[in-house]
Amino acid sequence: MALFRHLPLGEEVTSISGTYALLEEGEAYYGIRRFIFLVGIAETKSACCGTFGGRFIQVVGYPRTEKRQESAGKWVTEVEPIASPTDQTEISSLLSRRYPHSQISFLAFPRP
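The structure corresponding to this sequence follows.
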C-alpha cells in the first residue's frame, strides 16, 4: 500500500524542458475495482529534440481508503499500486477509449 497525495488541478508547473498542468482527477472501474487516475497536458518547449505537447494519463492505483485531509491540510488516499501487466493492459484500453491519443502510465511507489 502507498500514500497518494492529491495534487491541485489547473496549476501550470514549469520545468527545465517545458510545462505541464493536471486538468482532471478521475475514478473509473476495472471489473469491480475502482481506480484513481489523473489527466494532464504537457508541453515540451526546450528539449534537445524539438518541441511537442500532448495529453497524458497517470493511473494512480486502487484506493484502499477514502480521501482524507492530513493535519497539514493536504488531501491523501491510501492506494494499492496496479502492478499486474494484465490489469495495466485492460485499464489502458479502457482509458484509451475515453481519452484517445493519450500517453498512459502507471505510478510506481517506493516500497517502505
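DSSP finds one helix and eight strands in the chain.
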